[in-house]
Amino acid sequence: MTIDRPFSVRGKRVTVVGAARSGVAAAELLVRRGATVILTDVRDHVDDEDRLRASGVDLELGGHHASTFTGADLIVTSPGVPYRQPLVEAARHVGVPVIGELELASRWLRGKIVAITGTKGKSTTTTLTGRMLEAGGHRVLVGGNIGHALSAQVDESTEDTIHVVEASSFQLETADTFHPWIAVLLNFFPDHLDRHVTVEEYAAAKTRIFAQQTAEDWAVLNADDSAALAMAAGRRAHQLLFSMHGELSQGIVVEGDSIVRRTEAGREPLVPLSAIRLLGRHLVADVLAASAVAWLAGVDAGAMTRAVEGFSGLEHALEPVGEVGGVHFVNDSKATNVEAARRAIESFDEGLVVILGGRFKGGDFRDLLEPLQSRRGTVVAIGESRPLIADALGGRVEVHESSDMSSAVRTAFASASPGQTVVLAPACSSFDMFRDYAERGRVFKQEVLRLQEEWNVTREQ
Predict the structure, then answer these.
(1) Counting Cβ atoms within 10 Å, is residue 91 exposed (0-12), middle (13-18) or buried (19+)?
(2) Do 197 and 231 touch, CB atoms closer than 8 A?
(3) CB distance 80 to 170 below 8 Å
(4) Rounded distance, CA 115 to CA 136, Å?
(5) Which of 68, 156, 291, 437 is surrounded by the most beta carbons within 10 Å?
(6) With helix as H, strand as E and coil as C, how does the chain read?
(7) Which residue, 363, 319, 272, is CA-closest to 123?
(8) Residue among 94, 83, 73, 67 at smallest CA distance from 18
(9) What pLDDT is stored for residue 361 in this prediction?
């Protein structure tokens, strides 16, 4: 959505901090818009160095120089750069404006923005929303914290484009003029406390999604999540609520065997539950949220249903991987906090084996005791958080420890019986052992494939 005042970087010195996907896209966009750009990163080498230099981006690698920050006219940070990074703070202190990549790109978008945030379910909801809108005939670009960085979509943006944007707290904490037509808050529970100082700070970042909305905009909210409702209280946008439990007199609800839109005038069936191809009942809430956005955008029920029928989920989100000796393997590497792991565990029946662990970022592993015990679950602990997991769960749940993913998969397989499930639901970030959650999920799948091959060879002998 176009902002009220013109924004130009022509002739300005802009420092982009962080040369991952978002930073690279921002740097290239800024050069195209006439800025003199330095892209700085602590790594000695980054991807596409030759292309970046050829496009006019100056690279500062292997560390940061203070003058690169304090001498800039504008600083643009990648989501992975902490808000309180010392050199960024020093630049703020001398009056250099600091914005994030999401904020930068949004200032040049020409179409409407649908922004989706929450602690869990952002990627699934964002992807499905995009598919519903496309099925309804809209021109759609999906990106942000998923897929393409928003800066990579600016040149494609038109007045009739709907940008469906996954927005993380890291992106929202630097938002200023970011103005979604529809802002979706899926849920809220403590997370990222290794980055945000307090839960309150994390919540404040999330609520910035509503800050620039007006009475002409919409907030789509989870009526089953009291924290999410409280965070949106008093905002100017109209509210459309969704609920798994069907207790709303108005909103998007599950009623019988369908998702329906309830209004004062009656009910409108939208999507039959039989169309949903996703593992895990909690993912139905993501379908409800996507349906709410699609309804606001004028998408008919038939188009919504076609989109849902064609969507079997995302990689690393309760993704079925395969079967070995009657044991099923599921990859939920995106379950990077305790609440997400709990929801994954609750998606399965008795006899579950859960691979937990990584770099701890807050929460309480004891919250997993009840769902694990009620399913006679077993835990295989990996990563830096192994001692925390053993301390929280040991003695009440069977806990094994493994040093790497290969041994974890094999230990989990040995602990399971035919008909049971092994799920990777780490409840932690991946950064102690892997580059990101996606690499962790891919390694898990590779190890399952190796185990499958070994099992087949053994059976043939």
Answers:
(1) buried
(2) no
(3) yes
(4) 18
(5) 291
(6) CCCCCCCCCCCCEEEEECCCHHHHHHHHHHHHCCCEEEEEECCCCCCCHHHHHHHCCEEEECCCCHHHHHCCCEEEECCCCCCCCHHHHHHHHCCCCEEEHHHHHHCCCCCEEEEEECCCCHHHHHHHHHHHHHHCCCEEEEEECCCECHHHHHHHCCCCEEEEEECCHHHHCCCCCCCCCEEEECCCCCCCCCCCCCHHHHHHHHHHHHCCCCCCCEEEEECCCHHHHHHHCCCCCEEEEEECCCCCCCEEEEECCEEEEEECCEEEEEEEHHHCCCCCCCHHHHHHHHHHHHHHCCCCHHHHHHHHHCCCCCCCCCEEEEEECCEEEEECCCCCCHHHHHHHHCCCCCCEEEEEECECCCCCHHHHHHHHHHCCCEEEEECCCHHHHHHHHECCEEEEECCCHHHHHHHHHHHCCCCCEEEECCCCECCCCCCCHHHHHHHHHHHHHHHHHHHHHHHHC
(7) 319
(8) 83
(9) 87
User: Are the CB atoms for 124 and 187 separated by under 8 Å?
Assistant: no
N-terminal to C-terminal alpha carbon distance within the chain: 64
- Are 221 and 232 in contact, with CB atoms under 8 Å apart? yes
Token pair listed for 157? 């943006």
Query: What pLDDT, on the 0 to 100 scale, is given for residue 172?
Result: 96
Q: Closest by alpha carbon to 119, among 443, 400, 343? A: 343
CA gap 199, 337 in Å, rounded: 14
The pLDDT value given to residue 3: 43
Residue tagged 């802009």 (tokens): 14
Structure tokens given for 117? 């945030």
For tokens 């409407």, the residue is: 112
Residue written as token pair 């899926």:
186
Q: Please, which residues have CB within 8 angstroms of residue 31's CB and are 6 or more apart in sequence?
A: 37, 55, 56, 57
Domains and CATH numbers, the chain: 13-96 (3.40.50.720), 104-309 (3.40.1190.10), 319-454 (3.90.190.20)
**Which mean pLDDT values do the consecutive 10-residue runs of the chain (461 residues) have?**
69 96 97 98 93 96 96 96 93 97 97 95 95 98 93 97 96 95 92 72 94 97 95 96 91 96 94 92 92 98 98 92 96 93 93 96 93 96 97 95 97 96 96 94 98 84 60
What would the two tokens of residue 243 be?
A: 């609920």
List the structure tokens of 422: 């092994």
Mean pLDDT of the chain: 94
State how far the alpha carbon of 285 is from the alpha carbons of 101, 219, 244, in Å: 29, 16, 6
